[in-house]
Amino acid sequence: MSVTTAPTFPLEAAALTALVRAALEEDRAFADVTTLATVPTDRLAGAALVARTPGVVAGLALAVEAFRQIDPAVRVEVEVRDGEAVARGTVVMAIEGPARALLSAERVALNFVQRLSGVATLAARYVAAVQGLPVEIVDTRKTTPGWRDLEKYAVRCGGGSNHRRDLSDAVLIKDNHLAACDGDVRIAVARAREAAPEGMVVQVECDTVEQVEAALAAGAHGVLLDNMALEDLRESVRTCKGRCFTEASGGVTLETVRAIAETGVDRISVGALTHSAPALDLALDFA
Questions:
Q1: What is the pTM of this model?
Q2: Looking at the 3D structure of the chain, how many domains does it have?
Q3: How many helices and strands (H and E) does the chain possess?
Q4: Which residue is catalytic, options 82, 106, 226, 247?
Q5: Domain span at residue 269?
């Protein structure tokens, strides 16, 4: 599974430059004592970024920027695009230039691409697991601090969709909000609808069918069906049909996601897409 059109990269040029620079500085890549001590300044090299396992690629612009910041003389040829599925052994990127630059930028470039490609790959697996059903796979705010836009971009590269980006995007009344409102769904929704900007979605997290009915009666635009049994999900979907959108969440896995989708929910949110995605195995092989 891969996207047919690569999503728009989320960082402007200045932000991309600054993020990569910070990563290179963190790694002290401009003071790489091993490379400076062992590799002659005039030594040229060629290398290929190769997929060791199948997956969906994301974050290539960051890798390109890492090599070029170390030395503008480095030439990079990108062979695939973000959002493209690759087989084991696929050359993702070819790099040529001063050997010192290739060696010093290697880890930072790989860190970006391995992490984001891992997110894209896991998203693609969830999307494939519900293929043919009218449901969206969406992410959550469980992202690496400072990397949210990149990780949500990677989810899109894998064919998934984004939930709210941040706390100002939409109202989502969760269990702790309800606890602070004496557990009264109607009061919480009424306050939210009154205070929220016009047109903003008001969604309520519901653990029971009774809470769903209360949220609907209060005028919620959507319900987040949290850790519900399949039969309760089905009943909640029937109750909400034509009245609000439904979202299932909580402990969703690749083994359970299709059964959840078959209940008829509109979307399924999966925190694991960003907080537990394993890095895609990509390596820089020198010629």
A1: 0.95
A2: 2
A3: 11, 12
A4: 226
A5: 129-275
